[in-house]
Every structure is written in structure tokens, then in C-alpha cells.
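User: I've been going back and forth on whether these two constructs are worth ordering. Before I decide, could you fold them both?

Assistant: Sure. I'll take them in the order you sent them. The first construct and its C-alpha cells:
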Amino acid sequence: MRAFRATGIGATVAAALAVAALGAPVADDAPAAIPGAAPAETAPTPAPAPPAPDVDRLARVERQVSRALAWMSEVGEGETEITLSKPIQVSAVDHQVEIVLPGVALIARDGGVEIARWSIGSVVLRQTDRDDGSWRLTGALPHDMTITIADEPATADPLTAQVTVDRSEIVWEGDPEDGFSHNLSAALGDLAVAIDVGRLAIGSLTVESHLETVTTPGADPAAAETAGADPAWTAPTHMELVDLAIIAAGTPPQTIGALDRLVLAGRAAGGSLARLRQVHRLGNRLAEANPLAVLGTLVELFTVSTEPSLLVSGVRGEIALSGLAAGGSGLGGRAVLAEGALDAAVSRLDTDDVRISLGYRHDGLEIGAEPADQAPMTPPAATVELALDHLPLGSAIALIGDLVSGASGAGAAAAADPAAAALDLVGTAGSRLEIGRFEVAAPAAAINLAGHVAADASSPYFAVADLDLRLTGLDAIATALETVTGEPPDPVVVAVISALGATETGTPRDGDMVARRYHVTLGADGRAFLNDTDVTPVFEQILAELAAEDAPPPPAAAAAGDDGLLTALTPAVMIPVLEEIGFAPSLRPQDGGFGILVSRGTRRYPVEQLFVVFGGCDAPDGCTDALIWSWFTPRPTPSFEAINDWNADSRWVRAYLDRDRDLRLEIDLHAGGGLGHAGLEDLIGSYLERLSDLIDRFGPRAP
């Protein structure tokens, strides 16, 4: 089921609330006093007459409200719609304008079928003007609301949730012309969502977002504004949720989840407030989807985005929570987190120098099973930070684009081994990983591990760790692993246990208890040390075991029968033949263990790519079949009749148009009954001869 389509909290709330472009407050037209006239002593002073309503102003407000609601439906492309039970009501109240939206409902559709409806009720908004020409809207949500979600497929028994809010306040401050938000805040108290199986209760929920301009220290803001300066900007955002409880229905009701506090904080900064406003206006114009303005708007947006000054210079976000608890009796387990946080930041945005950092920390995490006497695995504390200090943004974008598109050249190499390409880029960026503090405890296994790990790509020793380990039952752990798996422990596990149990002299410890501090160094030269003892053989064994688990079986050698004929096809057979012709094939993983040979075209054969796909690979010495195919984009696209005529004059090969209207040529090879080396070369030669003719007839000429 698809949820409501989101257009961003700023755009959505602004469009829902920024419904009017309003003029100045209504003036007081009381007559002036007559100089020298004595005040009347006996006649009471008449009360001033209320100002007459500004009819034009109210009409303008009503038009703006209607346009805002229609704009939101246009953004939703008919799949999201705001409806009212009655026409909009606009009236003057003192120096404010009161806007009543009767019977508001937010409807979501999927393929024209209603799947969800949020029946909000009547919403009342008050508007006042601000000194800077922007305006302020205030309002509140009704106490009772209903959310109805249809089943999928829709049935007569949809899911209905009753929503109650004891107190609420929404404030929006922004530009009445384009909906550009200066400040946004919303506060909800005692929010509850109830369904048949239980309810969700929130003590309070607040959201705040502010746009602030940043001027040069010591500068006169008024003088800067007069001079037409373009100030930088920051936009801090803060959301806080307090006292969340998830309560299951029953007698008595049971709390199965709780959270004391959740805080989402973010901050964006930029170098041009004027450009930010300009991009916002352009985005609004695009959202309105006016076909006559889209092309010009896209050109203007591109021009704005490529100006020298930065639109956004840095972004930072953080999620922090405390008192998280989930699970309970009868649910099979529990999890309790005293406090934790996750943060991410992007700064120094430049084409050649970007800094990215990710951080995580927690205290008091406990994960366990029911009943409570089964001791939990408890990582009570951890702090992790990963930073890329000098990431070349252009190279990163190019790598991602190559991986997504499977492009040629360096991109093809990256697509063949994306992990290696990414590690090369990370190494160039001067990456740094630090686990500043961590603890892991499992009382049932008598394990207590605490330590610090740091890794730096620019350091001679790329990883250094200090571990405080208290571990009992090494022999019992090995026995338990064998009992669970039914076979001796994995060599990697044995190597790790042996390293942890090594004495200061490096010999494995044959005891049942380890309680000591370890200093581990992994050098960039591949050597490893444990408490200054060279344990490189153990480290190499671990890496070899891990690599063996992931590596495909090695290509089998060419298998020949007693008569010297090939009975199997392998990369070892095909690669030399293609290399002699001028191709540069490389292997890709394939089911069956051998791989797909991939190569770019050559000057003589300017195809986009050439592939060799192996089949019938059940035999231990290779595969019985192989398919060679390549493709290129013909200029212009030939007719099916022309391709059929070409096929009628060819043997062994077949040509056809694929779904992308590219021209593809294939040939099948079979060695099950024996195939001589000369016969293999003749078949490939026939394929290339016909490929050359196909290119001459329909395709691009060699450069």
C-alpha cells in the first residue's frame, strides 16, 4: 500500500498554510480633533466605529487559499488531494484575517482508487503582517481526527485509526508571494492514535525550522542591505518527541515499546540567500507543471545551480534517543537502550575536496531473550566515527555513474570490481575510522571485551587496536561451536581464538581463561602484530580463509580427449584466441563458476561490447557450450526485412534487433563431442568476418 506522497515538510506545510498574500493592516480612519475646542463634559464619548472590512483584501485572500489547495493537488498529480466540505470562509477580525477551512480531508489514491483518507475536520487560521513584508499564520488541529486506510485489494473492512490531540499550535512565517519559508513550528501535546489491536501515545511532539541570514562580523546589516549584499544563510531544524508508548490491547493492556525522548536535529548552510530563494521559486514553477514554462525554467535552474557561489556549503544531521525499550513478556525477547545517537555531516563542498563524516554512539544497550534468566549479549557502550577528509567529488560522481550505467573504460573496470574501485577512491580521500570506545559483555559465556580501534589510510599502520579482554571458556566455546554446527570449528574462528589466547611469547595458550590487555597493529605492508609479537601467519590465514569463502572456483584448464580434441570450453581456452584478435577480455562472475568474458570493441570491430557466456558447466573440467555475442547501435535502424535478407546469406551466425533497437550478432559454440583448436579458431573467425560485414552494412564505421 502506498503512503501519502510527500513533497517535503517545507513545501507541504507552506502550501497548506501560506494561502494568502495580504496587504497592510486596516487603517484607523477616526477624524482629527479640532484645535482649541473644549472637550464635552456631559456628553459621553462615542465608541469608535469598527473599521470597514477591506473587501478587495478578503477576496484576494480567498483566491490565494483556493490557488494553494489546487497547487497541492497538482503537485500530487491527482494521487493526493485536499478536499473541503464547504467553501472557504474569509473574514476580518481586528487587524487580522481569519481563514476557515471547513471539513478538511487529505485523500491519497493509487491508480485513481482511494487508498487512504485523513479526515482532519475544520481548521481555523489567523494571519498578521510582519515588518519585513512577510506574514505570519497561526492555527491548530482539531481535537478528534480519523485516518482510514483501505486494504489491498480494497475491501469493505478498511483499517480505521482514531487520532486525538489535546493541544496543538502551528506557526508559519514566510513570503506571501512564493511560499518561501522563514520559520515553521508545530507543537502537539497528548497525541494518541488508537486502532483495534492497541494504541500509540505521545506525550508531546514539536517541530521547528528557521531560516537565518549570516552577515560578516562587525558589518552594519542596514548598510549591507542598502548596498545590495547577498548574505549567507543557515537553516537549523529541530524535532523532538517525548514519552512514546506502544500499547497492545488486552486485559490488562501491555506496553510493548517505549521511548523517553527522540531528537532529530539538522542544519544546512549556504553561500547565497538570493540564489536559495531563486531556486525555491523555480521549483515552485516546475511543480505547477506549466508546459509552456518548463523548458525555460529548467534552463534558468541549470544556470543558477552552476554559478560560482555555493548554493549549499554544508549539511549536518543528528538523531538522538534515550530510554528506548522494545519487547516484553510473551514476545520472545527484549531490547533496552539507555541512550544513543547517529550523526552525519557533509562539509567543504568543493569539486576537489569534500569532507564526509558519520558517527554513532550509544550507552547501555541490552539485547536479551525471555525468560530473564537467559543472560543477554550486552554491548553497553560504543562510539564510532568514519570520516573521509579529502574526497574528490568529481571522481566519486564519475564512479557512481559508471557503476550505474556500466560505462566503458575505467568505469568498466569499476563495474567489474566495484569494491576495489571504491577502496581506491577512499584511500585517495584520506579516510579515517575510529571506534573510540566500545564494550561487549555476555555474562553467560563470561565474555567482557572493551577497547579502542583506529584506522587511518595515511598512517604507516593503517589499523591499531587496544583491547581489554576478559574471556573464560575458550575450550568450551570451541566445543559449543562444534556441537551447533556438527563439524569442527571454522579455521577462521580457530585462528581468532588462537590469537586471542596467545601468550606474550606468541605461543598459543592451552588454558581456559584469558584476562589481559592486547595491542594489535595491522601494517600497510600486510604484517600483523599482537603485543609486539609477529602473528602475520595467523592474519594471512584469516584473510585467506575469508577470501576462499567468497572467491569463485578457478577456471578449469582446457580438457582434451585422447584424440586431442577439446571436450570443454573455459576462459583459459577463449582468452588467448580473443587477445590474439585484438580484444582485451576480462572475467565476470557467473553461475557455474567460470565467468562471462567482456571486452570493448576494437578499431577493426567497433562494437559497444563483446561477451562470451558459458553454458553446460556441470562437468568438473569445464563447460560444453559457449555463446559469443556483441552489439552496436546501427545508423539508421534497419528494417526487419533487411536483417532477414542479411541472415539468409549467413551461416553459423544470427543477427536481430533487441528491445533497445540495437543490432546484436550471436554464434553458438559446442565442444561436447570434441572440438579441435583449429575448428574453434575457424568458427570465431567466421563470426568476426560476418560481424565486419554487418558493421559495414548497418553500423558505425571504424574511427
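The second construct, handled the same way:
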Amino acid sequence: MSEQFKQMIETARRGYSRYKPLFDNLSMAYLCEMNPDILNDLERRGKSHLFVPAVNAKVKRLHTAFMASYFTNDIFAVLSPDNPDDPQNAAAATAIERALRHYQRRKMINLYRVFDTAFLNVAVKGTCVIKAYWDSALAAPVVEELKLRDVWFDPEAKNHAELRYVVHRMYIPRAELETLRKLSSFRQDFELPQAKDSDQRLEIFDIYHKEGHDWYISTVLGSVTIRDRQPLADGLPLFIGTIMPQLTKEDETDAVEIYGDSPMAALTGLQMEMNILRNQQLDAIALQMNPKMLVQAGARISPYDLRKGPGTCIPTDNINSIRILEAPNVTQSEIGIEHNKLEMMEASGVTEYNAGTDSKVLNGTATGISILTDQANQRVAQMIRSLNETLVEPLFRHLALLIWRYGESRFYKDLANDRYIDPDLFIQINTGLGATSPQVHLNGLKVAFDMLMTPNITPAALGVLKHILPILGIKNTQEYINDDELQSKRTESGEADGASDGGATGAGGAAKDAD
């Protein structure tokens, strides 16, 4: 079995190594780090070496939108029974939500801190990984973000459903590894490498592998398996978030399709070009402000006199012995920079106005700004939807079941149903507010309010309004127009119409009889 695990580790590591250069380039672009060889060459030649924070600004815009979308609302998510008519499931959903609030209030679960880092990574690299499990020692769920450099995926999996194994590399102190011998799930006879420092950290690998429909965990230290095929009752505790699918070439056989595409990947070349243009522009401006001069040999002109301030008298025998070297034209470079900015906006879906980095756009027309903002918000909203589907909803469902299975019994003392039977839950993630500007959201609410307050609104109009609300940026339409109430209004309207028709027919018949 050790040989099989060793093969898994090496295969998964090679898959990660293929993407590591891309991740490094994306990280350097966000951190505004220039290639060291280029930086040293520019410094040696006395050239400008400014790094324009274009990618940095766009990443921060996406990160801000993600965090605002999930954490602007008071309640992050709402649990409800999948079948509202089942009183046991309804009571279980209420109890789980109450327990979750308890763990959050006591700071046992800090979703803001975890998602803050995860959303930054997903905005830069296109992928993030979060681990969620129940810690028996803490008697609480644990949620933590894992570094991509330490999590390697089954390279043959084409999607999350086909994932057969995941390798998680960790560095554990020797003293902590000593305590693992006491656990029944670990071997008691494994030996640690010799070392003088008890605080030395050793590299181990947790391997999550799927056999049939069940997940197991094994742990490898060096060439020794110190934990072998321990079943995971709660399934795979790792959740992989992506915001864009990865597109591979038809003949590409070594792609790891579990990784998502980065929205900043197309910007790395443009970022480099932007740096070159801006630095050349700065050098050209410096030459215009401090031009180089050609001085005839033997003209007996002191170089120090040429560098003196305004109004300085420079003695010379021949006035024609000095000529100013013409500097490059800066005006033409502005065309290239503006074209570069436009390409960056199209590639990332984040306008200069959204990022708050272009004062000229801020002075544009209201209509133009509105169009640019709406287009950018559509791209961001799609990314948020992808985060919901791949990361947030699966993670929150897992957390809810962990709290249901292992949470304090006092939260469930009034429930009659067995806690070994998982309830059917519907999870509603409260997003949408941060994905658009507050003004757009406020305008949408105002339009919806005016329509709902229309006197004697018909059921048909309510049905149409229900389809309009999402367009206005209101996702939770059920809170405003309940399906049961809408059907009731339709029924009442039908009965009223029938009664009215019957009354008219009766009156007409009575009149005919009277005649």
C-alpha cells in the first residue's frame, strides 16, 4: 500500500508542478514584483523600473465585491427544510441554525477570516481550497483555508465528481507527531527521523482517497504509512472553489482540470506591456525636463556649469558648440497606454471606474458610467454564482451536517428524530447585494416597491413582477411574492370572476322571465 500512496503523491505533485509557474506569475503580478533579471538590468542602466499596479487594483475590486456580497447581509445563510410540510425536518433546520449561530458568536467559526484569504486566492489564481471538519478536542467545527502549494489533485479527474484522491502536504512538529502514536487510528510502532530539535517540523502527507462511494484517509511519513485507510464518516472534508472553468486544448493530456481559470491570467502579458510603456514614458519625460547635451570636444565648457540651476551663466568661446539632444515624443505613448487599459478592462471584466483608478472615467457621462458598471457587475455576479455552486453552498451544507451530528446535545433536546439520520436541508446563501453598486440595488428596490404597492394588483401582474425582481437585483423573490399567496390570489380571482358571471347571467335570466 505504501508504494501505491507514493505513486499517488508523485503523480499529484507533477500535476501541480505544471501549474506552479502560472501561479507564481499571477502572484508576482498582484504583489507588483518585477522579474529580478529585468529589474536589475533597468537599475544598472539608470532606467525607470516602476511597476504599475493594474492587476493589483482589479484583484482588489473582485475581492471587495466577493466579500461585500457575502458579508454585507446580517445573516450569511439561511437553513430551511427541503420539505416544509415535515415538522421534524423543520425543527431540525431551526436547531442547526441556532447551533451554528452559537459557534459563530463564540468565534469557534470565523468565516470572514477564512473567506477573506480564500477569495483573494481565487481572484488571483482562480482556485481556492477550504477544509472543514469536526475537532473532538475543541468540541467545535474547524474551517481553514489551505494553500494551493500544499494541496495536489488527482490529475486524471475531469471534474469534482470524478476526483479519486487528493494529497495534502503538511509540516508537523516532532512533538505533535509523538502524540499521534497514542491515537488508535495511527500505528504505534512508527519511528521518527533522528533530530536534536524537538520543535523541528517534519513533512507528512494526508492522502484522501475514494474507494467505491466512500472516502478514506491515509497518512505517509517518509516512506512509511503511519495511518492506513481510515474511513471518513463525513466524506471528503476539502472544498474546492473556482470562478471560471479551465479550457484545455483538444490534444492536451496532462491538464489538471480541477483547477479553475484565473480571471487575471490574460492580464499578465498586458501588465508587462503596461510596465514597459509607463517606464519608457517616465524616461522620456525625464529627458525632456533634463535633456542631454552634445558639447563639442575642446569647447572648454564645464559639465558642472551645464547642471547648474536656472539663470546660470555658462562661459564658452563658441555658442554653437552646445546642442540639445532631442528627447522622445511622449504624446504617442499615451495612445498605447489607453489601448492597453481597454484590453485589460475587456479581459478582466473590471473597468477602471469600478477599480477607482482612472479619474478621467469618473468624469464621464452618467449613461456611459452606468453601462460600464452594469457590464462589469454582470461578470462579477457570474463569478459569485460559480463560487456559490462550487464552494460556499457545499461547504455550508457540510458544516450544517457536522453540527447536526456532533454538536452539543442541548441544541437538540426538544427533537424527537434520530440525529444519526441526516435531515433534508435547503440552503439559501444571501448574496447579490455586494455584486452591484448600492445605488443600482436601491433603485431596484424602489421600482419593486412601487409595483408591489399598486392598488388592486392582479395575480397576472404579480406573476410578471416575480420574474422582474431578479433583473432588478433582488434574488430572494420568495420573501416578497410567496408562491402559496400568489396561487391563492389566482384562485380567489377566478372564483370572483365566476361569481360575477353567474350573477349577471342570473339577473339576465330573471329579467327575461319577467318579460
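Notes on the second construct follow. Residues 353-372, 432-437, 495-515 have pLDDT under 50 and may be disordered. The first helix runs from residue 2 to 30.
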